[in-house]
Write a structure and sequence with these properties.
By secondary structure, the chain is an alpha/beta fold. Among the domains are: 142-239, no CATH class; 250-397, no CATH class. The chain is built from eleven helices and 22 strands. The chain has helices at residues 8-16, 20-29, 31-39, 113-130, 149-152, 174-183, 246-255, 273-279, 292-301, 341-346, 386-396; strands at 42-44, 46-51, 55-63, 66-73, 83-87, 90-98, 101-105, 132-134, 138-142, 158-165, 171-172, 185-192, 194-195, 213-218, 232-237, 263-267, 285-287, 315-320, 328-332, 355-362, 369-375, 378-383. It has an 18-stranded mixed β-sheet that branches. It has a two-stranded parallel sheet with strand order 1-8. Strands 11-13 form a two-stranded parallel ribbon. Helix 2 (20-29) crosses helix 3. The radius of gyration is 26 Å and the shape is elongated. The N and C termini lie far apart (73 Å). Residues 259-263, 332-357, 374-379 and 383-397 have low confidence and may be disordered. It comes from Caenorhabditis nigoni. This is F-box domain-containing protein.
């Protein structure tokens, strides 16, 4: 008896006993079996995507003992002993290279080989989504950026980690940057790219749309507009901003309306009294209103700051922002971050660190505030979102 004529409960029992590769084969065997498999979606443990210099690899794991790797090469191959699969109306050549590795290719002379690979990747990703549920967010790492690949990621999947770290740094278009920053949903985006025609792209804010990125770590920051940072809860800039650019960065940030930013780290190199006034030129400072509880709160939130218990007496100063009034607090202390000769003797590589300043910037239009933290190695901008403000205000009572 044919599978589609079996009673529904029996169909369900049979399909649930199938392995992932068996389900995959049935989805391309015929439209009828494909429709049947899609009724009983398989739960996948994870999907990991790796873009290498010569291929795109998609590693799919159903469980610890059932996994398969799809290899999509950029170069044209003969694909001997291959089969033709009809996936979503496209004919894809497929062969089993090893026990758990399948090679995919689209032999279409209208596209170059890289474009072929990206097309096959998009077809495969959409097909996997049609008959599977993914328990964990997906992973994706880039060693190169094929033309059109970023647009293929905009498919409704939720990512845990997207890492774009190419050597040398590659360029993306403003349209590709828009997809990464506004459309793709990910917990962590590591972004080390150049941007073509950076002035053609501006961050678009949609108050009805939830934030799509939780943590954004930026490598090359030449494309960043510090007055309008992307909408991410935690923003870090991992590469050093030259000291002679810091005043420009601070003034553009102070002049902006970065409502979505909560924590941003800006590396500046060695900080001293000699260059303090240069960095803060034309940035007005006022007596601070920050409380000890609030200081403790953002030290607990920022993992890259030294432990609060190692800090001595802290002197605070405020910066008042004219346009939208965001407040940051800058603390200054001359105390050793790691006091005690015993610790220094047992750990000679630990150097003393001091927090030079923490400024507070106040927003005049509402009660939002940010903290601007400087130490001997870096400057941190800790801007509190509305929920964080409510929490901090609760600490005052």
């Amino acid at each position: 008896m044919k599978l589609h004529r079996i009673p529904f409960l029996v169909q369900k029992m049979i399909v649930e006993e199938l392995g992932f590769d068996e389900r995959l084969f049935l989805t391309i065997a015929s439209k009828r079996t494909c429709s049947l498999i899609r009724k009983f979606k398989v739960d996948l443990d994870s999907i990991s995507i790796t873009v290498r210099t010569n291929e795109i690899c998609v590693f799919v794991r159903k469980d610890l003992w059932d996994s398969i790797t799809f290899s999509i090469p950029f170069h044209k191959c003969q694909m001997e002993h291959s089969s033709a699969w009809n996936i979503g109306g496209s004919i894809v050549r497929v062969r089993k290279a090893f026990r758990d590795i399948m090679e995919f290719s689209l032999n279409d002379d209208r596209f170059d080989t890289t474009r072929n690979a990206v097309t096959v990747f998009g077809i495969l990703l959409r097909h996997l989504k049609s008959f599977s549920n993914i328990r964990k967010p997906m992973q994706c790492s880039f060693r190169t950026i094929p033309v059109g690949f970023i647009f293929a990621l905009d498919c409704g999947f939720v990512f845990n980690n997207i890492e774009i770290q190419t050597t040398p740094i590659e360029s993306v278009t403003p349209e590709e940057l828009k997809v990464l920053l506004e459309n793709v949903q990910t917990e962590l985006l590591r972004l080390n790219v150049k941007v073509q025609s950076v002035h053609d792209y501006k961050y678009l804010r949609n108050p009805d749309k939830e934030r799509s990125i939780y943590r954004l770590i930026i490598g090359n920051h030449s494309w960043v507009d510090f007055s309008e940072l992307p909408a991410a809860k935690v923003i870090s800039i991992s590469k050093q901003i030259p000291l002679n650019q810091m005043n420009m960065v601070l003034k553009s940030w102070v002049a902006g309306r970065n409502r979505d930013m909560e924590i941003g780290d800006f590396e500046i190199g060695k900080f001293s009294d000699l260059n303090r006034e240069i960095i803060f030129a034309d940035v007005e400072r006022h007596p601070s209103q920050i409380t000890e509880k609030e200081i403790d709160a953002f030290f607990c939130q920022a993992n890259n700051l030294p432990s609060r218990r190692f800090m001595g007496n802290i002197i605070s100063v405020d910066i008042l922002r004219e346009g939208d009034g965001l407040r940051a607090t800058v603390m200054e202390t001359a105390h050793d971050t790691y006091p005690g000769s015993k610790l220094r003797r047992n750990h000679p590589n630990i150097l003393p660190r001091t927090i030079n300043m923490i400024y507070e910037i106040d927003r005049t239009t509402d009660d939002r505030r940010a903290a601007l933290v400087l130490d001997a190695q870096k400057i941190l901008i800790l801007a509190w979102a509305d929920r964080r403000i409510a929490k901090l205000q609760g600490l005052r009572t």
